Amino acid sequence: MRRLLLGSLLIMVMIIPVFSQSITIKGTVTDLETGEALPGVNIVIEGTFIGSITDINGNYYLDVTNEEATLVYSFIGMNTVKEKINGRSIIDVALGSDAEILGDVMVVAYGTTTKEAFTGAAEVVGEDVLKERPVSSFEKALQGTTAGLQVSSSSGQPGSASTVRIRGIGSLSSSSSPLYVIDGVPMSGSITDINPSDIANLTVLKDAAAASLYGSRAANGVIIITTKSGSEGVTKITFDAQYGVSNRISDGYQLMNSTQFYEHSWLGLYNQQINDGQTIEDAKAYAHKEVKNIVGFNPFSSDNPLDENGKLANGVKALTDTDWRDAVYKTGAIQNYNLSVSGGNDDTKVYFSLGYLGDSGTTLSSNFKRYSGKVNVSHKVNSFLTAGINNHLSYSTTEAPPSGSGGSNPVRSAEIINAASPIYNADESYNWENKAVYDFNPVGLSELDKYSYITKRALINAYLNFAITPTLNFRTTGAIDYSDNDGVNHYNPYHGNGAGVNGRTSESRSDNMAWNITNLLTWNKARDNSSFEAMLGQEAHGEKYSVLSAGATDFAIPGHHELVWGGQPEMPSSYSSEWRMVSYFGQAKYNYGGRYYLSASLRGDGCSRFGEDYKYGLFYSVGGSWRITEEEWMPELFWLNNLKIRASYGTSGNSNLGNYASLGLYGSGANYGGYPGLTPVQLENNEIKWEKIQSLNIGLETRLFNRLGASVEYYTRYSDGLLYGKPLSAGLGFPTIMTNLGAMENRGVELSLNWDVLTNRDLSWVLGFNMSTNINEIKSLATEQVISGTKIWEVGGDVYQFYMRDWAGVDPSNGNPMWFTNVASDDASNNTEPNSAFIDPNGSGKMVTSNYMDAERIRKGSALPDLFGGLSNNFNYRNFDLSFYFYYSIGGQIYNFDYAANMHDGNSPAYNLSVDALDAWTPSNKYTNVPRYNTNNENQSEQMSSRYLEDGSFLRLKNVSFGYYLPESICQRVHVNQLKVFVSAENLWTLTKYKGFDPEGAMNGTTSNTIPGVKTISFGVKMEL
Amino acid sequence: MNIKSFKATLLVVFVSIITFSSCNEDFLNPKPTDSIEDDLIFESYVTAEAALIGAYDQLSGSNFEGLRAPIMADIIGEDVMVNAVENWNWFVAVYQLNLLPNYTNVENPWWNAYKIIHDANKIIAKAQEVPDATETQRNALEGESRVIRAYTMLTLVEMYANAYSRNSEAPGILNVNIPTNKDSEDFGRASVAEIYTQITDDLLKAIDLLSDYTNKGFFDKRAAQAVLARAYLDMEEWEKASEMAKEAHKDLTLMSANEMLSGFSVRNSETIFSVAYTAEDNNVYLSIPSFYWPVAGYSSMRANDRFVELFSKQDIRLNYFILDPDIDPNRNLILKFSHNQQVGNAERISIRAAEMHLIEAECEAELGNNEEARDALYIVQKRSIGNAIKSTASGDALIQEILLERRKELFGEGFRWNDIKRRQTQFTREGDHWVKFDFGAQDEDYNRLTFPIPQSEIDANSKLTQDDQNPGY
Known about the structure:
The complex is a heterodimer of chains A (1025) and B (473).
Chain A: H1 2-15, E1 23-31, E2 42-45, E3 51-53, E4 59-64, E5 70-74, E6 81-84, E7 93-95, H2 99-102, E8 105-108, E9 111-114, E10 122-126, H3 127-130, H4 138-142, E11 149-152, E12 163-166, E13 179-182, E14 185-186, E15 199-205, H5 208-211, E16 222-227, E17 233-248, H6 258-275, H7 280-295, H8 324-328, E18 332-344, E19 348-359, E20 367-380, E21 385-399, H9 410-416, H10 442-448, E22 450-469, E23 472-491, E24 504-526, E25 530-555, E26 566-592, E27 596-607, E28 616-627, E29 640-654, E30 665-667, E31 679-682, E32 691-704, E33 708-727, E34 736-759, E35 763-772, E36 775-780, E37 785-788, E38 791-794, E39 801-805, E40 807-810, E41 817-820, E42 838-839, E43 847-849, E44 857-862, E45 867-877, E46 880-890, E47 893-895, H11 897-901, E48 949-951, E49 954-965, H12 968-973, E50 978-992, E51 1014-1024
Parallel strand pairs in A: 1-7, 13-16
Antiparallel strand pairs in A: 1-4, 2-3, 2-5, 5-6, 8-9, 10-15, 11-12, 13-14, 15-16, 17-18, 17-51, 18-19, 19-20, 20-21, 21-22, 22-23, 23-24, 24-25, 25-26, 26-27, 27-28, 28-29, 29-32, 30-31, 32-33, 33-34, 34-35, 34-36, 35-45, 37-38, 38-39, 39-44, 40-41, 41-43, 42-43, 45-46, 46-49, 47-48, 49-50, 50-51
Chain B: H1 3-21, E1 35-37, H2 38-41, H3 45-60, H4 68-75, E2 80-82, H5 92-95, H6 104-126, H7 135-160, E3 171-174, E4 189-191, H8 192-209, H9 221-235, H10 238-249, H11 257-260, E5 271-275, H12 288-292, E6 301-303, H13 305-308, E7 321-322, E8 333-334, E9 348-352, H14 353-366, H15 370-384, H16 395-410, H17 416-423, E10 427-429, E11 437-439, H18 455-460
């Protein structure tokens, strides 16, 4: 080994012009704290490549020509020490641990930096935020922790990932998800496979200076996950166990019971007959005769349960009063166990862990289990070579019932099956009859149908790190991210979706194989008061997705879902799809005097997804910062400990589109009459190219009174060439073509405060607060407007701007619904009032109509919040710690489709109603917001309008946890180093005016009968051996 | 580690860098495995033929010939009704004649049809250049594609434009008769007459190019003649229509009375073109029997009592109707279209000889050839009516008798809507209809018998504005 080094040094020395005569310096390097010799310490003559390294006894020799030179001693984990030779020939040095400095090291794109030196906008989220949280996936714990980071769960399905957005919505049709990078390698599979307790910290890269180095994948920001690694010293064995119970996050609005629904249905029939011109007697007779037909069941003890006026007669009792929500929702149990071992010595450091998470879910047939294992090893082969591997394996099973508007969605069934419909028949078999979703009893289906998924995941990355010289480093990383997904979906032969084909099973096996090779060459040079760092990199990435699916129908043997039990095979299918990318990049950083920092980066990407002429893209960034408090002319102010301003500008891209988006293709599977066929599936689209984002960031960081840290950021992100499906005439064969025609801007201000309120030895209190605003604005579109569902896209509006008819309430004279005509709006070209228009009888002075189609749609605000953020409090008192996080979101509308289904005014008479519908117009209740209830209503009052648009603002106690470290004496008695018991509760309390279960939902602000969010209370123990 | 292995390691690393640096053509051009690039399709007969199969597949889809087009052609009529119970709202607005330009039932057939036409246009343009195809094969590719295009356009123009007989100069549909790509110019609405010219032109060419096939799942010469007979009938070209109808039914044996009652789910001696439906690659619930047969599907179609009353007691077709209080206490169920062993598994017989005899009868009657007309009519009547007597009527009475027979013989097969329109007759719904109407050709309500142009088309097509919408929408 020595020979090699001497050899290579010799070569280098020969390159350097040899001056007059050289002297030999020798000495010993020791550890400041232990006094032990330190082998492998780099010694270099400042400003040159000349250097040496200490041997096993900490001794070194070095020839120098300039007696005035400075020697730089460096060793990983230790403070770097500089010594001027000053004519000495023996220089002994002691290196201290740089623990304090390490605290400020942050993992950034392709390397690390210190907080002081960083010119970009990024935030580190430490382990303290993630630990002991009863969540299945780390991103759920991030909500409210970081300014500019929006996390929203649209489903309480256990194991489902939340939607994450950094600084707004960056794309119209492509993904706006950030890129996740784990231990230096971009991830391809799901983030929910990662066990949060394996994560050491996360860095959220927000601006161009931070993220542009990821080029075409950085448009929506980057989240870097760093997993735990071993450290030298005594091996630590940690075990924690956590048990929790979870429930639906709130009760939502109340639904009618069977009596209310029966009476209300009677009223609807009566109103319908009166409306048709029948006499009161005839109308009542008709209502009495038909009401059971409409409801489906007579839930009462009498055959004639209703009196003359359609109210429950005296002495009649409701025998059936099903709470379908109670039937579909349950209390979930969460179990979380983690065992980890971490340790190592000078040369080898290991961390490994085993984890289990089980979440039985709050909804029928909805659960999640994850088994995970991790091994991280790093090994110092010799003085210049370090090798390591980071390994993650997981296996998870999910049962998830279908969402959406189909009959098999249990969440929807719970809302729309009326309470007069029983779950079971008298003989305890399932009752499949009901008027809302015939043959889809959700309780019965949860037993007979199957929706289960298995995911296996392997994330492996291995690296070699060559410290070629003390200043020149080369690192090569090879990584594989493999995920395998199996899905089984079985419809039973008797009821629901499978009844028509005597049962159906569909199975799919898919896998995604992603590989990545990254090579990095870094060089740094430090002078007295400046330093320079350069990096050159090369990366190649590829992904191949393969899928095989098969199905069968005609299942004769009950309870067996495997394909072998099916009598009739269905068309199987398989295909694969891949994309590849090759990239080169470089970065340079310069620092002068610890005051001025400059950085610049450049990246070129070539991506297979684009057409011949548009395969390559170039992305760059520049950034700079100025630490004013380090200036010599700055007086030392007791109240100002740090003041830094920084700015950055740069570009990045978004390449999230179909793998073969530029090709004109004929697709297989267009079979006819038993012959295989092909049909055009995609128009040739050679001009399709990257979405580009230009980001500007200006930030200010300060620390006041040594207690209050604050940072303020202003940013703009201008996205150009946004892909979206430009509508085509049917004459061109396809409804849309992806075109780079949109532009959009996100701009906002972020504020973060961190206040050490109390820092006594016994008691400390840290208060954190952050606040973000983001304004999203569409800057250009190919067409004037794109109207889709509840939304409108247009220049000047935002991406989630609501556009619908404007609810004007109920006409007191007849109970009809009314909408403002809004003739000045742009639905129709002319501004003339329709024939059906009249002056609002409720006195707004505006024109209204009771004919839905005659009202024009108007803009009704956005789904995006005006302001969101978090507030955290951490208390430590001796052995106790207490923390609570609040999350808030102010502004932002929600269009509540679910509520609309329960406020249908008789337009869908079979669906259950909210108790709010009891306030429907009657001649004696004229001033109300709920129209007259008419069975088989055709007044379209339930159609999309601002009637169902709600304010989605909320304040939520996101997490509260309380922990207690048992006294040392007890720990010693049970032979553990540390023993902690804790309680942690998630989503315990919410303040909102929103009527549904949970104001936190889909980013686009619409509801779709997804499993409601959950609140969880858990307790656990954590011990360290 | 010694210096050699160090060097070796570095070498490996640098070699790997160089490997990936020399990103050759293939590295950034992976090919899909489930599709083929456009320009390869017409390089061989095998793929060109598969493209033709694909065009039939588009045609057979539930948004067009497989379900929506034919079923709506009867729902917009007087003879059948849609029961809203447990029907998940299928076709209710169509039944109510209450359609808006953005409704699925308006949008989907249009978009599906132009996808069929897109497929056919590509084949027509390239068929004669397929290098390894024989002349017969090339002619079959072109000829069948022309029939596909003509058949699709004919269905579209009947749905989305006013009848040729009413105003042939009125706006029709988009005459997309060439291959298009993303940069192609949009097509405006061609006149109804232009569309019929395109249709007849395609069919005449196809008749020259095609021969007769035994597999009636594909358009052959006879099918081309049959479609042409329909087009001429719309155009009131009685002579030409009669001639084509005769060609189309020549030598075909009508199915037996028994076969008439066996469910219309498999082709037989009378079939001229049948959608070769297979349950494997279609949604069985979106099929004709799923809606018509009284059990096992949506099962929501009912027959109007006044219509049922039109059949004589001796008519075997009366067996198509049944009252079963267990299923529906009030209205006639329909037994004409059955499942074949499994739900929804049934071909849809699109063209059959009886229709050709009826076209012949109608045309001959219009031409004043009463005896020929009576003979043609009698062929159809005598199969189903036990005591059938050849008609003695003539002139308009004969025509009315033929039209009534057409209604009885072909109900549920997708003709009623256009028969009302092309003859501009009164639209009257009586009896047990949920939604009743009574309007004539001069009433504004007659606009309900023409679909609106889909809103998405008006929005996206640079040649169309709101003013190009059909009257009444």
